[in-house]
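User: My collaborator and I are trying to settle a disagreement about how two of our proteins should look. Neither of us wants to argue from intuition anymore, so we agreed to look at predicted structures for both before our next call. Could you fold the first one, then the second, and keep them clearly separated?

Assistant: That sounds like a sensible way to settle it. I'll keep them separate. The first protein:
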Amino acid sequence: MIVAPKIRGFICTTAHPDGCAKHVAEQIAVVKNGGPISGGPKKVLVIGSSTGYGLSSRIAAAFGNGAATLGVFFEKPGDAEKSATAGWYNSAAFEKEAAAAGLYARSFNGDAFSDEMKAEVIAAIKADLGQVDCVIYSLASPRRTHPKTGGVFRSVLKPIGQSYTNKNLNTNTGVVDEVTIQPAEDDDVAQTVAVMGGEDWEMWLDALLAENLIAPGTQTFAYSYIGPELTWPIYKNGTIGKAKEDLERVQRVLDTKLAPLGGKAWVSVNKALVTQASSAIPVVPLYISLLYKVMKADGTHEDCIEQMDRLFRERYTDPQPDEVGRIRLDDWEMEARIQQPVIANWHKVTTENLLQLADIEGYQSSFLRLFGFGLEGVDYDSDQDIAMKVPSIG
């Protein structure tokens, strides 16, 4: 089948197998070009491993440090008539590249929140690796079924206390207008914390610790974002921000639990980037477009793979925590020389001057690349095997 992009709102409903493979190969090349990573982990579990920061974490650990990796994700395979999700093709490509490099890689497709998935992964670690020495938690989900109570929770992106109005970019039309987001109601905050907070991260570590599958010195990382003040009402101080606060609470709890093994839990605050999750957040796409313009001109722009390569290459052995103990991979984004022109342009940007002030082409290119489109060297007129398998899943 010939696969073309089909955009609906903030999502692309198709994915290109060869394009996703090329995107994975390009990320591998970034890591390899940096040379071997010393002092990193050798047996890594990535929970949420098929796209964005999770995928890049798996690539950086495997191809920078020769790590054996297990990846957990929830993706839809393709069939004779419909392409798989991008994460499925990403994972298939990763496993093929890992096999060619002689690296252990095993993947699990299903509900990472469930006890069944945890049991399946635990059995694989026991059988294949014995223990893990790094756990990456990189889930971004709109809903969660609690494994103990059966309760179903749904996350929302809302401000707290009052409505929030600010500039917004329609990435399909290129129009800069305003968006008003109504405040959280009823149990919106609790529901969002239940989905995007730290409870499941802790459940994963508890399950692994109970089976003695955590090696001495293990580090675990969960990913977060803070951003500039203009996004705080919808992010840092909104419902999602409360979930990120809970993530930091759990980080401190896990520190205590890992201490007897000489282990450590971290929250890594990463840079604003075009991901499947960030494209759904109002206001953020316009900010990212302005940020890309400034950071590319400054020579400090990084994508997911450069961020995760820096995490494993520089911060794994020298974390350089901030005043509250977080790793700050958003440090270049938050430099005054970057933020000052970005915020100045935020106040000036309109539909008419958008192309001059913002990197719209870069934003749209990054978005399409998430789904395997727009990569050089890919024949987009060729027939694709849309029903391809992830080797370890079949």
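The second protein, kept apart from the first:
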Amino acid sequence: MNVVLLTREYPPEVYGGAGVHVEYLSKELARLVDVEVRCFGRPRQAGPGETGGGPVVRAYQPSDEVPQGMLESPVLQVMSTDLAMSAGLSDASLVHSHTWYTNLAGHLAKLANGIPHVATTHSLEPLRPWKAEQLGAGGYALSSFCERTALEDADAIIAVSEAMREDILKCYRDIDPDRVEVIHNGIDPDEYVPDPGTDVLERHGVDPSRPSVVFVGRITRQKGIVHLLDAAPVIDPAAQLVLCAGAPDTEEIGREMAEKVRLVRERRDAPVIWIDRMLEKREVIQFLSHATVFCCPSIYEPLGIVNLEAMACEAAVVATATGGIPEVVVDGVTGHLVPFEALDATGTPRNPERFASDLADRLNDVLREPHRAAGFGRNGRRRVLERFTWAAVASRTLSLYRRLA
């Protein structure tokens, strides 16, 4: 069997959960079948699959021959790249696309070659209207077109959580429920292990001896970091607030983030440490390992790999009870879930002040009892080992491939 994975992100250019998913899934699948990864971006070095031991990796960019106006549109650039990615797949057994960025490529490859198309949904465009800020109204319409067209014709759709499966069937009512299968995301528990070192913390001015609340993620509406900042003034003043947050979706949200951090620093005596870039994996692991509590204040999260990463590093987790998060974080066992009710499709909390207050209450509850927090962390790692390994994800994914091909 020759499987081709289509993705926007692949190392060394990974900034979100979908990229992490493809990175680890491709490695595990390559132990079992022939795997080729087609990704966006600069040319990669020859993949290990070309000499044995891993996936073959090929990178694609928009064609230089398309009209200049197309190159000025980010979404049309994506669609141009999809056209290039979908060519030369006559020997593939099937294609497997990830996110709207490559869903269209998977759809075109199916039509051109008569091979099955599997699509994994890491998010859904109808549930992310704030993407219009990033892509523009026309760009958001095109991204929605790519997703809808591909999903409605895909031979199988993988949802990364039960909540995501429900969302797919609500958003796209023409999709046969029998074509949607839940396969959770995973984690590499041999890589994400507690790191006793403190060099990364000290380099960034974090005191390893003091309690800390840690956030790791992109600066985007979806990740809810602005709500954590709204909660910050009433979080235990003994705790450091560590924000590992970069890659803002837009200049506007980047400025909003900077202003909120400035205001929080004026109102808190404890340090507010903002690392405004995407960190290397080793750095993230050390921050998570020393966190008294990791906070995931997302307003939309189909699953949230970062919660698995934190749990694998034995951090207690306080996270929003939305999307697939309750399928990962067990309230009162691995941390706390924060109630959440959205006002509308934008994900705005119905009561933002209450949401911020509830976040602070749950975080303070963990900070008050460090021994209980440590117990949450141990329980979290145990849960990851039992239920969320990439080997299990690859096994279930390959079983789906074989049924189709």
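Some points you might bring to the call about the second protein. The domain at 199-387 is CATH 3.40.50.2000 (Rossmann fold). The mean pLDDT is 92.
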